[in-house]
Amino acid sequence: MFDLLDDQRREFRATLREFCRNEVMPGAARRDAEAEYPAELVARLAAMGLMGITIPEEFGGLGLDMVTQVLAMEEVAYADASLGSVFAGHYLGMETLRQFGSSEQRKRYLPGLATGSLRVAFALTEPDAGSDISRIRTRATAGPDGWTLTGGKTFTSNARESDEIVVFAMTEPGAGFKGITAFLVPAGADGLAFSSPIEKLGIRGEHAYEISFDGVRVERGAVLGEPGGGGRVALEVLNSARIDVAALANGVAMRALDLAAGYASARVQFGWPIRELQAIQLMLGEIDALVQSGRLHAYHAAALRDQDRDVRRAGAAAKYVASENCFQSVDKALQIHGGYGYVKESEIERLYRDCRIFRIYEGTSQIQLLTIAKLLGRLHDERGTVV
């Protein structure tokens, strides 16, 4: 993994790490308590060019790779998981346009996305359509001048803070997965309404909303990809997004390891620091192994993505391993803190709430395992082996 971090990436990480630990971390607890959206910090990330890491230079981005993007996600999440989730949400919407936008759409939107002057959200989930997107009920009806959308979405991150929203709607009722089309909808369109931010257990600074579409009209050129191709658009983009979630989980797990090691060195019981106790050493060793395992999976998947390789299996594995390992790491770090880890003033308590979502969004852990199993079956049928 660390062979991937050349001098350029190490310099990039050093600059971002200094910003995150000096400017982001100090206010993270307050923002969590107040459920405050980190608008100023998002603007600071944009000013550093970090909203367009993988956008080509011709569109004003940094033109770098996904390995660098994963590195950035780790550093931001280490400092504040809420800001990390906002950051990753930007890339989820942006990646849709980068991969599936027409030439005209890319020229129109990518420069703004690269500078952060333009934001885009990703609206896929509905009350009855989570992992099973074929159950989408939001409808888009074709007319002479464009499309009319009716229905609703839920758990749409950053929707109200965005300028555009990628919306998935059923254009061929009864066709299931093949009847879905992706649209780019202005956030200020007539007939579009937002709820108040949904109250969440963790990552409280990242706001998620319910959205309703009451006869929202968009032009024909608002389609992303091809009509009926929205299911493929969603799954392709989520393949990359799962690597981002793995990076977020790893960043939180890295912070948990640092907190556990620091507390074990400072806390004295029985006449010496508790890190001298074998029970504590076993937990510290396990956390370290869990963190390194999650990071290896994330960087491996990102490197494959940079080679334009199929990342369905690697991305699903990275998301599963990193998110599950993160939860175990934070839980063991809290155990090391004992009762002090269970109080609201403890940073570990916040990490415990923040990390739980990683096992759910962009596909639950169970969905990742099913994805991996299906791909293994295909590999075995094609090659007679899966290794």
Automatic annotation (TrEMBL):
One of its GO terms (molecular function) is acyl-CoA dehydrogenase activity. InterPro entries: Acyl-CoA_DH_CS (IPR006089), Acyl-CoA_Oxase/DH_mid-dom (IPR006091), Acyl-CoA_Oxase/DH_mid-dom_sf (IPR046373), AcylCo_DH-like_C (IPR036250), AcylCo_DH/oxidase_C (IPR009075), AcylCoA_DH/ox_N (IPR013786), AcylCoA_DH/ox_N_sf (IPR037069), AcylCoA_DH/oxidase_NM_dom_sf (IPR009100). Keywords: FAD, Flavoprotein, Oxidoreductase. Its cofactor is FAD. Residues 228-374 form the Acyl-CoA dehydrogenase/oxidase C-terminal domain. The keyword Metal-binding does not apply. Pfam families: Acyl-CoA_dh_1, Acyl-CoA_dh_M, Acyl-CoA_dh_N. Residues 7-116 form the Acyl-CoA dehydrogenase/oxidase N-terminal domain. Residues 121-216 form the Acyl-CoA oxidase/dehydrogenase middle domain. Coiled coil: none annotated. It comes from the Bacteria. Belongs to the acyl-CoA dehydrogenase family. This is Acyl-CoA dehydrogenase. It comes from Actinomadura soli.
